[in-house]
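Bumping my old thread because nobody answered last time. Still need a sequence for this structure:
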C-alpha cells in the first residue's frame, strides 16, 4: 500500500465527523458563495465503465502475445490485472482463487467451493469454474485445469503480483512445466490505454481538480492538514469518484514528499501542498498543487517558478519514440542548473520525475534514469519534479498526461502561477 493511500485511510473517517459543514466552490460560484457538500453533482455519471466486449478484446490481445512468446497460459491471482481482464474484483485471502487464461480457449477459474455461487455472480468473461473444497488442494486442481486445456508441457506465465505461496503450490504440483514472468503479456496490454480507458481517467482527473478547488476555498488559519484532507476526500466522493488519497502538507512538512510525522497547523505565509487522487470505474487520477496561504515570499515564488519550468521541460521531452528517461533528465537539468542536487541530493529533486498510471495509481513506465522504454500512443504518465528544501518547504506540481500519435496531452492543465493553481 502506498504512503499516499495510507494517508487517505488515516484521514478518510474525518469526512463524517462534522468537519465539513459547507463547501465553497470558487471556480463556478461567485466569490463568497457557499454550497453544501450534498449539493455537489455526480460527475462520474457522464462516463461508462469498461464493456465486456473490450475485456474480450484484451484477452484476445493477451492470447496473441502468448502465442508469439510461446507461453501456454498465464495465471492471475487476485488484484488489478485480474480485474483488467475479467472485470472481477476479488479480495486476496489464504484461500487460493486464480484465473487461468490459456493461449487458446476460454478463461477458466479456480475458486474455493463455498464461494462458488458468489463467484459465479461476478463472471462476465468465461464460464468454466473449478471449485476446491476445504480439505482439497487448489494446486492439484489448477494442474488439472492445465491438462483440461491441453497443457501437459510448455511454459506458464505468472503475473507479477501473484503471492509466493500460490506460485509455490502450483510449481510443486506441476514441476514438469516451466514458469516465467507474465510481464511480457500483461504489461503491453495494460500500459497502452484505449479511448474508453482515457475517458475514465479524464473524468477522474476532472473530479480531483474540482475537489482540490473546493479544498482551497476552505483554507483557514490554524486548520490541520487532516481537516483539508477530509474536505477534499469528501468532495471527490460526492462528485462521483472513489477517493484514493488526499495528502495535504503545510509549511516545512511540504519538504517531505510523502509527509512528516510532525504536521503543522496552517499559518499565514505557509506553503500548502495537496497531492490527491480518486478512481472512476477503476481508473485513477493523481494531481498535486502547491500554493501559499497568503502572500508568497520572494523565495517561495522563485522556487515555485523553477518547479514550473522543470515540469514544462519534462513534458516537452515526452515524444513518440523518445525514451521515458528523457523526461526525468530534462526536468532534473532545470533544477540542477539552478544550483540544486545534483542527482537525488537534497535540496533538490529526491525521486523520479514521474510514473505510469492507469487502473493503479503507479504503473509501469516510470520517468526515471535508465528507463529506455520508448513512448507509444496510449501510454499514460505523471510529470512531477518535486523540489524539496529541508527546513524550509517543498514545491511539487503534478499533472498526468497521455501520449497520442501527435505527442502528449494533459489530463489536467498545469498551474499558470503560484496564485492561480488551475487554468
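Sorry it took so long. Here it is:
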Amino acid at each position: 500500500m502506498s504512503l499516499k493511500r495510507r494517508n487517505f485511510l488515516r484521514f478518510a473517517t474525518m469526512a463524517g465527523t462534522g468537519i465539513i459543514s459547507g463547501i465553497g466552490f470558487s471556480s463556478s460560484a461567485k466569490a463568497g458563495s457557499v454550497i453544501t457538500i450534498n449539493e455537489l453533482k455526480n460527475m462520474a455519471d457522464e462516463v461508462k465503465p469498461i464493456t465486456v466486449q473490450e475485456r474480450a478484446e484484451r484477452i484476445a490481445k493477451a492470447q496473441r502475445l502468448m502465442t508469439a512468446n510461446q507461453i501456454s497460459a498465464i495465471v492471475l491471482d487476485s488484484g488489478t490485472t485480474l480485474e483488467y481482464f475479467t472485470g472481477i474484483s476479488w479480495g486476496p485471502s489464504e484461500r487460493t482463487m486464480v484465473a487461468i487464461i490459456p493461449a487458446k480457449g476460454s478463461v477458466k477459474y479456480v475458486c474455493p467451493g463455498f464461494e462458488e455461487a458468489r463467484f459465479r455472480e461476478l463472471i462476465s468473461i468465461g464460464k468454466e469454474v473449478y471449485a476446491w473444497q476445504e480439505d482439497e488442494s487448489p494446486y492439484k486442481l489448477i494442474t488439472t485445469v492445465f491438462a483440461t486445456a491441453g497443457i501437459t508441457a510448455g511454459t506458464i506465465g505468472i503475473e507479477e503480483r501473484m503471492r509466493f505461496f500460490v506460485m509455490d503450490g502450483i510449481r510443486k504440483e506441476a514441476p514438469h512445466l516451466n514458469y516465467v514472468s507474465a510481464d511480457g503479456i500483461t504489461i503491453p496490454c495494460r500500459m497502452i490505454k484505449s479511448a474508453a480507458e482515457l475517458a475514465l481517467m479524464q473524468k477522474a482527473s476532472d473530479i480531483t481538480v474540482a475537489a482540490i478547488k473546493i479544498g482551497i476555498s476552505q483554507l483557514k488559519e490554524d486548520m490541520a492538514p487532516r481537516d483539508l484532507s477530509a474536505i477534499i476526500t469528501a468532495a471527490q466522493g460526492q462528485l462521483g469518484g472513489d477517493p484514493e488519497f488526499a495528502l495535504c502538507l503545510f509549511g516545512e512538512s511540504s519538504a517531505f514528499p510523502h509527509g512528516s510525522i510532525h504536521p503543522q497547523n496552517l499559518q499565514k505565509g505557509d506553503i500548502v501542498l495537496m497531492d490527491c487522487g480518486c478512481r472512476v470505474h477503476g481508473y485513477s487520477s493523481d494531481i498535486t498543487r502547491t500554493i501559499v496561504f497568503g502572500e508568497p515570499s520572494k523565495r517561495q515564488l522563485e522556487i515555485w517558478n523553477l518547479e514550473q519550468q522543470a515540469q514544462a521541460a519534462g513534458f516537452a521531452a515526452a515524444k513518440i519514440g523518445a525514451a521515458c528517461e528523457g523526461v526525468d533528465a530534462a526536468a532534473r537539468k532545470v533544477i540542477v542548473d539552478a544550483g540544486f542536487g545534483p542527482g537525488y541530493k537534497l535540496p533538490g529533486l529526491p525521486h523520479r520525475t514521474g510514473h505510469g498510471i492507469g487502473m493503479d495509481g503507479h504503473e509501469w513506465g516510470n520517468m526515471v534514469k535508465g528507463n529506455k522504454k520508448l513512448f507509444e500512443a496510449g501510454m499514460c504518465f505523471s510529470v512531477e519534479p518535486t523540489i524539496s528544501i529541508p527546513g524550509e518547504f517543498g514545491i511539487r506540481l503534478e499533472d498526468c498526461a497521455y501520449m497520442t500519435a501527435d505527442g502528449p496531452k494533459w489530463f489536467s492543465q498545469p498551474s499558470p502561477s503560484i496564485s492561480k493553481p488551475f487554468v
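Residues 5-32 have pLDDT under 50 and may be disordered. Let me know if any region looks off to you.
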